[in-house]
Design brief:
Elements (H helix, E strand, L loop, with lengths): L7 E6 L1 E2 L11 E2 L5 H19 L3 E9 L7 H14 L1 E12 L6 H9 L4 E7 L3 H6 L6 H14 L4 E7 L6 H14 L3 E6 L7 H7 L8 H17 L3 E4 L2 E3 L6 H7 L4 E4 L4 E4 L2 E5 L3 H13 L8 H7 L3 E5 L3 H14 L4 E2 H8 L1 H6 L1 H9 L3 E3 L3 E4 L1 H5 L1 H8 L3
Parallel strand pairs: 1-4, 1-11, 2-3, 4-5, 5-6, 6-7, 7-8
Antiparallel strand pairs: 8-10, 9-10, 12-13, 13-14, 15-17, 16-17
Helix pairs in contact: 1-2, 1-10, 3-5, 6-8, 12-17
The structure holds iron/sulfur cluster.
């Protein structure tokens, strides 16, 4: 069957100036020599998928990383024009680029606007210089503010700021001061994340060796609750567990993930979800460049059947066998992250009446625990459930 419907695109840029202490993303410092071949490979990978994607409208594109704003403008231009040549970008498509405040200037941001990037997401994380230094961020608080102002001057009308709360030994007042400073800039969107300690990071090493305390979960919960109130007072609507926006300024791209829609990920380690199949490209950027080249040399695969295409796509090194019970759980877990919750009629339409019945006991238990609330046609996570979201999600996973 010919694939149809909207298809979003994610483009992974794995380059960073320095590795931040808490970061376990697929990102690397010191790989500058790979930039040109990596962009060549991205464009070649687009070509590999172009026949599959032909005719599918693309409502959103997201450049994530890594630090996409480390790419020189001519390389961003090459990628954007290759995307436009090979995919049916909608005229009003949302095109987001993640930027590190320490890597941009007014001229760079103007060039992004000129090529059609219309949403910027700044990783600010904190407005305290000592906290930024502890996180190994490459910018100061003042530089973050300056970059934000340049982005407005350049014409960006949709700007997100990412902040992290619950840093080791961070008192409530310092988090409050960071958030207040972010609010005073009046961004259109904010993502507020609790610091998590990921295996293999410098932060995890420091904690294991007694050089840093673990983040305090109770303090993080208080910070989250305070932030929810403060963001509501200042006119931001929470629409997802960690995301707030001015009305109409939600991130359309991330909504595709949460609504379990279709997206194609391009680049090292990029994940995709096409027609119910989840898969990911090889993690290593160097290996990615080699494997894409090998597939391209063999000639672009024909056809539009995802399973058949994946057999030829050597750069795809992880494929999850589609399983209905996993697709159901994903739809619930991702959908419950959203304040709108999950539409039960839609859930039944997608997975059959039996699917809802299979969850009846779990829904009842979660409702009893005040973690879930249910109306006739929707289920939503409660405020208490947002604080204990993992408790909810773990119960929705298949055995
Ligand atoms: S800039 Fe972002 S992707 Fe790069 S190391 Fe820091 S947190 Fe990770």
């Amino acid at each position: 069957m010919k694939p149809s419907g909207a298809l979003s695109l994610y483009v992974h840029i794995p380059f960073c100036t320095l590795k931040c202490s808490y970061c376990d993303f697929n990102s690397y410092a010191g790989l500058e020599e790979l930039v040109q071949p990596y962009v060549d490979a991205l464009i070649a990978e687009m070509e590999l998928w172009s026949q599959y994607a032909r005719g599918r409208p693309v409502p959103t594109v997201f450049f994530g990383g890594g630090t996409p704003s480390l790419l020189p403008i001519p390389q961003v231009e090459r990628i954007v024009s290759a995307l436009r040549d090979r995919f049916a970008l909608e005229p009003e498509a949302e095109v987001t680029l993640e930027a590190n405040p320490g890597t941009v200037d007014l001229e760079y941001l103007r060039a992004l606007v000129a090529m059609g990037v219309n949403r910027l997401s700044f990783g600010v994380q904190s407005f305290h210089d000592d906290e930024l230094a502890n996180l190994d961020r490459i910018h100061s608080a003042a530089e973050a503010e300056e970059a934000y102002r340049w982005a407005r001057d350049a014409g960006f009308q949709r700007i997100n700021l990412d902040l992290i709360y619950g840093l080791p030994e961070q008192p409530m007042e310092r988090w409050q001061a960071s958030l207040e400073r972010a609010i005073s800039l009046a961004p259109d969107h904010m993502s507020l994340y609790a610091l998590t300690v990921e295996e293999g990071t410098k932060l995890a090493y420091d904690i294991d060796h007694g050089r840093a305390p673990e983040p305090d979960g109770d303090v993080q919960a208080s910070m989250y609750e305070w932030s929810q109130e403060r963001m509501a007072e200042t006119g931001y609507q929470q629409y997802e567990i960690s995301n707030w926006a001015r009305p109409g300024k939600e991130c359309r791209h991330n909504l595709v993930y949460w609504r379990n829609g279709d997206w194609l990920g391009l680049g090292a380690g990029a994940h995709s979800h096409l027609g119910g199949t989840r898969f990911a490209d090889v993690y290593s950027p160097k290996r990615y460049v080699q494997l894409v080249q090998e597939v391209a040399d063999a000639g672009p695969p024909n056809g539009t059947d995802v399973a058949a295409l994946l057999k030829s796509m050597r750069q795809v090194t992880y494929v999850e066998e589609p399983r209905p019970e996993l697709a159901r759980a994903d739809t619930l877990i991702m959908g419950l992250r959203l304040n709108e919750g999950v539409s039960l009629p839609e859930f039944r339409r997608r997975f059959g009446a039996g699917a809802e019945a299979a969850y009846a006991a779990t829904f009842a238990e979660l409702t009893e625990l005040d973690l879930l609330e249910r109306t006739n046609d929707r289920i939503r996570i409660t405020n208490r459930g947002r604080l204990l979201a993992n408790e909810v999600f773990v119960r929705l996973l298949p055995d």
